Amino acid sequence: MATSRLPPATLTLKQFMRRQQVLLLYRRILQAIRQVPNDSDRKYLKDWAREEFKRNKSTTEEDTIRMMITQGNMQLKELEKTLALARS
User: Fold this and answer.
1) Which residues of 23-36 are buried (b: 16+ CB within 10 A; e: fewer)?
2) Is the model's pTM score more than 0.90?
3) How many of the other CB atoms lie within 10 Å of CB of 87?
4) What is residue 6's predicted lDDT score, i.e. its pLDDT?
């Protein structure tokens, strides 16, 4: 019998949309980190981002997830500002 590649529980539309937001944020953070010029800093930031997302993977409360997305977006903006200043 073939195993299903679908998650064990079906997501609601709201959960699906939140998941998409989280994945987009993760991708944007990794894209910004790729622009860090120093190899050791880039590795540190990449490991940090990966660990933060893994650590919070099991969070299910809607308000907590929304707050973490907001914090992640603020941290991303701060990283982008820092990178822009470093380039100028």
Assistant:
1) eebeeebeebbeeb
2) no
3) 8
4) 64
pLDDT in tens, 43-86: 999 999 999 999 999 999 999 999 999 999 999 999 999 999 98
Q: d(Cα 23, Cα 25) in Å, to the nearest integer?
A: 5
Domain boundaries, the chain: 23-56+63-86
The sign one gets for the Cα dihedral 76, 77, 78, 81 is positive
Query: Which amino acid type is present at position 67?
Result: M
> SS3 letters for the chain?
CCCCCCCCCCCCHHHHHHHHHHHHHHHHHHHHHCCCCCHHHHHHHHHHHHHHHHHCCCCCCHHHHHHHHHHHHHHHHHHHHHHHHHHC
- Structure tokens of 4? 């299903």
